[in-house]
Amino acid sequence: MLNPKPIGFIDSGVGGLTVAKEAMKQLPYENIIYLGDTARCPYGPRPAEQVIQFTWEMTNFLLQKDIKMLVIACNTATAVALEEIKAQLSIPVVGVILPGTRAALKSTGSQRIGIIGTQGTIKSDSYKRALKNKSPQVFVESLACPKFVPIVESNEYASSVAKKIVSETLMPLQKKRLDTLILGCTHYPLLRPVIQNVMGSGVHLIDSGAETVGEVSMLLDYFDIANGPENPQPTKEFYTTSSPQLFDAIAQGWLTNYQEKAQHAKLNSK
Ligand code: DGL
Asked: Catalytic positions, please?
């Protein structure tokens, strides 16, 4: 049965656009609403309680837009808020951590997996726990990269400063003989070429957000709420809690054919 309601995507900022981009590619008939809480980004250094509260505020904003599914396109928010939100909503809610975990276990040959993410995600130990639950023998090395998100949010992800910071930050992973590295923050795929260059071509990078879209697609079919060719021109709405201009500049650089204009969103407390 056709269901024209939009799929909602939330992130602390522009990072979730990496997930939305993949959704536009894999699910071209779906209507999409995106909200980035750019005014309060980064979430990574914030206490879990605060991240949970902000995630609820974003969720409630999108529920008012009558979404049919919620994608928490942010690892930091997924790590601390997914279970609670999933338990309380009547629509399907998808996070980005488990899909990334599954893809990493599929990819690794040597059973040596690295994870990079925000301080909040790494501190939560969510990836390591999920990997070990599925495959106890796997070696896992985690690293928080707090400098990466500000580079992306300021649209500097292709700059020489970005290269320097990425290479310095990833130094501790160089000697760990990893064959797979999970990009455990949805902002990081924008830095992917730089990260790949630093880690070397022998390390397979897992884009947890992109992996998530496979699950979104599966759930749309499972619940029989996918849109089809009857909706050839799906709507796309973008909301940001700070400057729509900077958001549009980053979205234009990252999304193919971004012609929309982001709108300002005001979030209310839970
Ligand atoms: N994009 C978010 C994530 O996947 C978080 C970035 C941040 O706000 O620190 O973790």
From this structure: 74, 185
In the predicted structure, residue 159 carries a pLDDT above the cut 80: yes
CA 43 to ligand 1: nearest atom: 8
Distance (Å) from CA 180 to ligand 1 centroid: 20
139 Cα distance to chain centroid: 24
**CB of 15 closer than 6 angstroms to any ligand 1 atom:** yes
CATH code of the domain made up of 7-95+210-264: 3.40.50.1860
Which residues belong to CATH 3.40.50.1860 in the chain? 7-95+210-264, 97-208
C-alpha dist (Å) from residue 97 to 104, 154, 228, 267 = 11, 25, 28, 25
This prediction's pTM: 0.95
**pLDDT tens-digit map of 109-142:** 999 999 999 999 999 999 999 999 999 999 999 9
The pLDDT assigned to 232 comes to 87
Mean pLDDT, to the nearest integer, of 5-12?
98
Side-chain-side CA neighbours of 200 within 13 Å: the count stands at 11
97-208 has CATH 3.40.50.720 classification = no
Question: Coil, helix or strand for 187?
Answer: coil
Q: Is 76 in the pocket of ligand 1 (CB under 6 A)?
A: yes
| Amino acid 2: pLDDT | 80
What's the 1 CA to ligand 1 centre distance in angstroms? 34
Top mutation candidate among 50, 71, 72, 118 for ligand 1, by most atoms within 8 Å of CB: 118
